[in-house]
Design a protein that fits this description.
Layout: E1 2-8, E2 16-22, E3 31-35, E4 41-45, E5 57-60, E6 66-71, E7 74-80, H1 84-96, E8 101-103, E9 108-110, H2 114-122, E10 126-132
Parallel strand pairs: 1-4, 2-6
Antiparallel strand pairs: 1-5, 3-4, 5-6, 7-9, 7-10, 8-9
């Protein structure tokens, strides 16, 4: 079993042996057993509070083997608006509810939630239900929580 105790930033030229696809919530677990796509068991033993991002590289403590993290496609709500101010208002209201949100210049993305979906629909923004990689912002103090 590989044991990953160190994270490195994304590097397209890293000599990785495999990938580990995880959802946004799974990427917040710093201590957990996983199974890679090739079936090999791995243990994450990263510093508490570590949040993995798409492309991050994990280093095995014994062999030095490298594994790349990929953001696993998952159910999401993608929010688009006719103008920037409506998208900003939606982001503000989601932030007031401490919701994990992916923020880009053209859309917001969050985990499915019927109450939040209804709130956003009342605001007049468009919501699409999709299966997509989810990259929520980490909190102001480097932590991500999902509710």
């Amino acid at each position: 079993m590989l044991t990953f105790t160190q994270k490195k930033p994304p590097s397209p030229n890293a000599a990785v042996i495999s990938t580990l696809s995880l959802t946004a919530e799974e990427r917040t677990r710093s201590r957990h057993h996983w199974q890679m796509e090739d079936g090999q068991a791995v243990l994450l033993r990263l510093p508490r509070g570590t949040v993995l991002r798409d492309g991050d590289i994990l280093v095995d403590e014994t062999t030095g083997s490298l594994v790349r993290i990929t953001a696993k496609p998952e159910p999401v709500l993608t929010v688009v608006a006719k103008n920037t101010i409506d998208l900003l208002k939606a982001a503000y209201h989601l932030g007031n509810r401490h919701v994990a949100v992916e923020i880009t210049p053209s859309y917001l993305r969050l985990s499915p939630d019927p109450i939040l979906q209804a709130m956003l629909e009342q605001m007049g923004v468009e919501i699409k239900e999709e299966i997509s990689p989810f990259q929520p912002e980490v909190g102001a103090y480097g932590h991500h929580h999902s509710h």
